Amino acid sequence: MQDPAPNIIIMMGVMSAGKTYVGERLARYLSYGFYECDEAHSPANVAKMRAGIPLNDADRKPWLATMAHKIREWDANDASVVMTCPAHKKTYRDTLRVAHVQFVYLNPPRITLDKFVASRTHKYMNPKLLDSQLAIMETPDEDENIITVINDRPVNAIISEIVQKLANRYVLTCPLPQEVTVAS
Length: 184
Fold this sequence. Notes:
Elements: E1 3-4, E2 8-12, H1 19-30, E3 33-36, H2 43-50, H3 57-76, E4 81-84, H4 90-96, E5 101-106, H5 110-119, H6 129-136, E6 147-149, H7 155-169, E7 170-171
Parallel strand pairs: 1-7, 2-4, 2-5, 3-4, 5-6
Helix pairs in contact: 1-7
């Protein structure tokens, strides 16, 4: 028997992997709320990233604790939320596994990442940070039960793949897509 769908879905991956773009559309399709975890960074972290200085574990620790607290609150209130979080390291992911959480790892090829970085404007993420994020990104192990999606196709195809992979693991209340059409 399949488990019920997770009420928290974390879109993970390096900067410009499509976490927000895909996550917002997945949330809309599933009728979940959406939360952009970048909004919870401290002013000091934002200043470092704006300057192109990579965050370290000490910088991320209070931010991850805030995210874990939010996940606990959402879980306690039976809220259904798609949130973004790079979750570069297994220890970061373990910090966030405080409730019924499903990670979705968006892992586009480097050439796609470079195109995404070149085409986007972010209020503080310096494009120079991509290499440092790729350097610390720990590819999830099988035992982490993470859905991995190669984000190199149109968003509707990505959403369709994610929903199908969720349906293979959980009981979903939304219709299964032939191919999802999600308004941009």
